[in-house]
Amino acid sequence: MSKHQEGPAYAHVVPVRTLLGVFGALMFLTVLTYAVTYVDLGALNIWVALGIALVKGTLVALVFMHLLWDRKFYAVVLVSALLCVMIFIGIALLDSGQYQADLIPNFAPGITLRC
Amino acid sequence: MSTHDATAAPPAVGSENYLNCSHGFRSWFFTLDHKRIGVMYLASILSFFLLGGILALLIRTELLTPTRTLMSADDYNKVFTLHGAIMIFLFIIPGIPAALGNFVLPLMLGAKDVALPRLNLASYHLYLIGALIAVLSIVQGGVDAGWTFYAPYSTTTNTAVVTLTFGVFVLGFSSVFTGLNFIVTMHKMRPAGMGWFDMPLMLWALYATSIIQVLATPILGITMVLLIVERVMGIGIFDPALGGDPVLYQHFFWFYSHPAVYIMILPAMGIISEVVSVFSRKHIFGYRAIAYSSIAIAAFSFLVWGHHMFTSGQSELMNMIFSALTFSVSIPSAVKMFNWLSTMYKGSIRFDTPMIYALSFMFLFGIGGLTGLFLGSLATDIHLHDTYFVVAHFHYVMFGGTVIAFLAGLHYWWPKMFGRMYDEKWGRISAIIISVGFNITFFTQFVMGSQGMPRRYYAYVDKFEPYHVISSFGSYLMAAGFFMTAWYLVKSLYRGRPAPANPWGGAAMEWQAASPPVLHNFTEEPVVGDPYDYSNQDYDPAIGGYVLRKPEVSDR
Amino acid sequence: MSTPHEGRGEHADPHLQHHFQSMAQQYDSGKFGMWLFLVTEVLLFGGLFCAYAVYRANHPEIFAYAHQFLDKTLGGLNTLVLIVSSLTMAMAVRCAQLGQQRRLKQMLAATLLCACVFLAVKGVEYEHKWKHGLLWGTRYTSQEAAPAAAAAPATEAPAAIAAPADGGTTLPHAAAGPAGLAAEPQTGHGAGAHGGHGPAGPAPRNVHLFFGIYFVMTGLHGIHVLAGMIAIVWLLRRSAAGEFGPEYFAPVDFVGLYWHLVDLIWIFLFPLLYLIH
């Protein structure tokens, strides 16, 4: 919807500088997430890695995928999908953590024929 | 077959319409017209409904006696699996949205087509491909894992599970594309002057359905992919022999398949909202409440899947959470029910065929919904799970709910779709026969289920025999009703009285188009108005339908 | 969002379909449709992320052990390659919007090249795993210890690894009776938890589960890369005919969105699979 001097009337053209800036940030964060694995943060490591991935993903979505300039509804759509995935993962995790003690690994009576 | 049915029908009013504007197989099979795609969907799903129905009759006939009646136990397992899979994935899920929805959605919006017509056609082609792959599994000897494909049995049985699941995977994409298309259409194609709360409730229902289709179906896709990979490559994620977790499969499956039952029932509720108001000649009661309850049901649908797993190893904590959430779904459903009843209150009710189906829906869906509460409470579910009580509950909701509403919608829009009126007398008779047959078939199953008759059993204890016999005869009665319906509907295509544009006096925009509509739907710009305001139309006995009182049309 | 676009009666564009009133409405519809499609992709992968999360949370020892067989550097390289391809794709969209035909083709070609590099690197990784039997479920045949691990006294390990290979032979565990069955996994868990912190202990049970998840996730992602490549080739052909410009660039934009999503998914796959500490 935003207007721009050149280019199409109904879409935003992202300036090259912005694209390059985001690209640089993504490159830096990739190196950072790689480097951070050599530091022992205990249980925190995975959250750091996921946090960096989240920042990278947000950058890609906002700039490369134009969410920053597009209709806000697309962002709502994307976030609601992520929420849906979170609910799924959250409940599956919660439940599997609870019944894990009842499972007997590799115990599968009656399943002897594999084809 | 759609080609035959439809092109054979002579032009209703003698003028050009979407049915006769072009001829030949290609003009149908590669059409971008939403109406023709809807009609092709209709013909396809009805063919599969016939196939699934025949399988149902085979099941009921087999169960006439406690032991073997006409097939072996293995064949019986395959027959009930196919009955379930075909009815669910090939008939009910695409039934109302893809067949009726495709036809009426753009018309209700006063639009020329859906937003993405090529995607719409692709969706139909995918449906056809998926359906053929699924049916191919019959040729390969059938599948005996049940329509839920529970691991680890589905990964170890040596029947054609891969073919059927791959078919379901493809069908899932078809369903996603339909839903996606509908959402975009409702967002971008509404005419000027029609806000969200000026839409007919059918569209709200389709919108809620589409949300579920888009958000839930991909999980079915990945579940089927994992199942196929499990079988073909032995990846072990769901296979306990390899350290996998079969309960996780059920989480995956029901995360889709519970919302899927709302894919089936929500559009049915949309049809009822239309029919009840039109045939009561009264503005729908509680418009916003019905609209919001559709969205609420869609939202809740993602939070209750665990109630399918109360007895299959799910943790107690989750059992309690899911049970509580399950009860809360009954609130938006009841909101709808009471609004329909309030709509009828003091209305001038006409008992035309669609209305008889709508009343039948309310009765049957009421029973189906309330018995769901028995199953949703943890203690009673221990006793009732995997019995015929579940089978009866499911059929009351899916058949008594969705299929009956589908029939209501089919009769309601039939004149619009084909430009012909069916025989009203036979319509009413067969509607009553189907409802009565249905109750005989499935109410007995509540009784025997509560007494402990397990589902999916081939042989059973003698004391259940009378129930099974009654149930089977009910199903034959129902089948008779369906054949009667098929007969007078097909007859109407050839002999039916030409339909007026608005035979029922509906106020939504599809009734402003001709019956059947022209290729681009409207010959003149349709007037946007309140879809439930019947005050500005008059009955014209000369054409047997309603006409808008032109001068008084408000320009809201 | 409440009202659709009004037709502005612009000059009829040959790309404008009959049922739309304006190019803006058509573009918006297509874009919205594309976003909804991306949502389905997110959920498709969401299922796999769920499987990953459940197994990682409940069997951390498998992940701590098995990820050492993955080449962090190759994975990191692929991440960089995909980020470059995302940049060129975003540039391609910009070029199409501005009607810079030559640069549009260059950018699309660069994106395609990056995709090829990505798949080639992936192929090298797959080949390495194939050679060493680091495969899924029934195909898992690896007998070697983790790279960093010394030949630790692996008392239970060989049996544990061999067990899945012939499926049902794990049944003898049942002979120990319910008590034995309940006790047995406890010890397995304990060993695994220790192994997770040290450099690498003996292989825990069911290591193949990690490779199953790894192959499904990267495989499905790879299929998406392939599909994206086909779409880019299609774009290249159309841009060679000079079809895109400020008036009509929707296909480039939409394929771009898809491509960025594929990149985005990899951004999460990389730390989850390769960078386990």
List its salient traits.
heterotrimer; B: 556 residues; mainly alpha; Cytochrome C Oxidase, Chain A; two-stranded antiparallel sheet; two-stranded antiparallel ribbon; 16 helices; 66% helix; disordered N terminus; C: 277 residues; Four Helix Bundle (Hemerythrin (Met), subunit A); 8 helices; 68% helix; elongated
Task: Walk me through this protein's architecture.
The complex is a heterotrimer of chains A (115), B (556) and C (277). With 115 residues, chain A is mainly alpha-helical. Chain A folds into two domains: 1-70; 71-103. Helices cover 61% and strands 0% of the residues of chain A. In chain A, helix 1 runs antiparallel to helix 2. Chain B has one domain: Cytochrome C Oxidase, Chain A, CATH 1.20.210. In chain B, a hairpin with a 4-residue loop joins strand 3 and strand 4 (545-548). The relative contact order of chain B is 0.11. The model of chain C is unreliable at 1-10 and 148-199 (pLDDT under 50). Helix content of chain C is 68%, strand content 0%. Chain C has helices at residues 23-58, 60-66, 72-98, 101-131, 157-165, 177-197, 208-240, 250-273. Chain C contains eight helices and no strands. Chain C has a domain at 64-142 and 160-165 and 208-277: Up-down Bundle (Four Helix Bundle (Hemerythrin (Met), subunit A)). The longest helix of chain C has 36 residues, at 23-58.
How many domains of chain A? The number is 2
Helices and strands of chain B, in order, run as HHHHHHHHHHHHHHEHHEEE
Structural class category of chain A: mainly alpha
Average pLDDT number of chain A: 86
N- to C-terminal distance of chain A: 57 Å
- Mean pLDDT over the full residue set of chain B: 92
Strand content of chain B: under 5%
Q: What is the CATH topology of chain B?
A: Cytochrome C Oxidase, Chain A
Parts with pLDDT < 50 across at least 5 consecutive residues of chain B = 1-13
